[in-house]
Specification:
By secondary structure, the protein is mainly β. 2% of the residues lie in helices and 50% in strands. β14 and β15 form a beta hairpin.
Length: 438
């Protein structure tokens, strides 16, 4: 699988190149029971960006961000979930009264369903995040003391049981129990998070350390962070596999490399009082093509790696034979592997050009449910590099196969007079931007 994150690529001596191609990530949100607010920080610099929720929250606990720019915050004291604008902190409403008792952890899936670890009810309560409507409870009776919740890459739900020393796994849609991890490793698990590569992290307050497990098999993968937090609590993992652990009595958020376990510093020291949970809206994972094929056209120059960066190293394709005069004589098919079966957002970007006017460029994504391509953009191709990004809408899981494959087609079709008899299309870059809600 070649599914590199933009920031990981930028770390490979590609800073200037990446700066022009990838957008900056969103903020980090931290619930702070010291003054009953949510503190906001820049994900990369750690700079303080503001305090939200003052006057609305009593005991802010778990929190999560969706792709509709909503920040959801569970309030342990009032038994409700508050919704704020994730950009400016404006209050937008609340829900859950009468259904929640002592809510702790909170997660949201790609369909804007909010899952709340309901400590007083020994279950996980679901709500429509956009309307606040109650959608039922799952996981009833499994956890002695529900604490943290996290979504996996296929919308599986992980629930930590502080009282029972386990992390349970459920199908978030049906509520079906699928097993547990952590038994014998984590006596008092609280925070849980899943990284882009399927590694489940569990913070165990008894050992003051984070444990890693394979989220699919449950296999133990090691530990890190021993002794850094005074009283660790909630945790989150960003698209670069950086772990953010809230230190309730240490007044900061500790950062770790989830691959190596190395300590990476702190965020919020001097600003946070008693941080409890952390949430991140990660930037999309940049998925590079793992293969390409020519459905129509003849290769003139270039290789698969020509499609990785906008660097003037083109995949150049000459026109080829077609079955009729309405068919595009250049059709390049690229495939990749998504980090999730249920994207929160999905884009596809192409940078390319042609060597003559009179050509249209058509970008299509393959829908695995209908087994057909969906045209998302048609426009005149240019004789100089042109970058086009298309955004998929609707049920995004339809654009991902059961094995995680994604596929796109870039076609070039003559629509007017050309200056060259056998013209060519040159593609400099293709990639997908696939957002996962961790």
């Amino acid at each position: 699988m070649i599914a590199f994150n933009a920031r990981r690529l930028c770390g490979l001596a590609l800073t200037l190149l990446c700066a022009s191609q990838f957008a900056h990530a969103g903020p980090i949100y931290v619930s702070d029971i010291g003054d009953a607010t949510v503190k906001v920080f820049d994900q990369y610099s750690g700079a303080y960006m503001g305090t939200w929720g003052a006057g609305f929250l009593s005991y802010p606990a778990g929190l999560a961000v969706d792709t509709q720019n909503n920040l959801f915050v569970a309030d342990f004291a009032s038994g409700q979930v508050f919704r704020f604008n994730a950009s400016d902190g404006q209050y937008e409403g609340q829900f859950g009264s009468g259904f929640l008792s002592g809510p702790r952890g909170l997660a949201v899936d790609s369909n804007d369903v909010v899952y709340v670890a309901n400590a007083g009810g020994d279950d996980v309560v679901r709500f429509n995040g956009l309307t606040g409507n109650y959608m039922g409870a799952i996981a009833t009776g499994y956890a002695q003391l529900p604490a943290g919740v996290a979504m996996g890459p296929s919308n599986e739900l992980f629930l930590s049981d502080y009282g029972g020393g386990k992390v349970f796994r459920f199908d978030s849609q049906t509520g079906l129990y699928e097993g547990y991890v952590g038994g014998g490793f984590a006596p008092n698990p609280i925070g849980v998070a899943v990284d882009p590569y399927g590694v489940l992290d569990v913070y165990d307050s008894a050992g003051n350390q984070a444990l890693k497990f394979n989220s699919q098999s449950g296999g133990y993968m090691g530990l890190f962070g021993q002794g850094y937090a005074r009283t660790g609590f909630g945790m989150a993992i960003d698209q670069n596999s950086v772990v953010y652990l809230a230190d309730e009595t240490g007044g900061a958020v500790d950062l770790f490399n989830n691959d190596t376990g190395a300590y990476m510093g702190q965020i919020g020291a001097g600003t946070l009082i008693n941080p409890l949970f952390v949430a991140i809206l990660p930037e999309p994972t940049v998925v590079l093509p793992i293969s390409y094929s020519l459905f129509r056209g003849v290769l003139f120059s270039g290789t698969l790696s020509s499609l990785f960066y906008t660097d003037g190293n083109f995949l150049e394709v000459l026109t080829g034979p077609t079955l009729n005069n309405t068919e595009a004589p250049v059709q390049v098919i690229v495939t990749g592997t998504s980090p999730t079966l249920t994207p929160a957002s999905l884009t596809f970007t192409v940078t390319g050009k042609v060597d003559t006017p009179g050509i249209d460029q058509v970008i299509s994504l393959f829908n695995y449910s209908t087994n057909a391509y969906v045209v998302l953009d048609t426009r005149a191709a240019k004789t100089t590099n042109q970058t086009v990004t298309v955004t998929a809408t609707g049920t995004l899981s339809q654009y991902v196969s059961a094995s995680g494959a994604v596929r796109a087609r870039i076609a070039y079709l003559q629509v007017g007079p050309t200056l060259i008899y056998r013209w060519a299309a040159s593609i400099d870059l293709t990639n997908w931007g696939i957002q996962v809600l961790y």
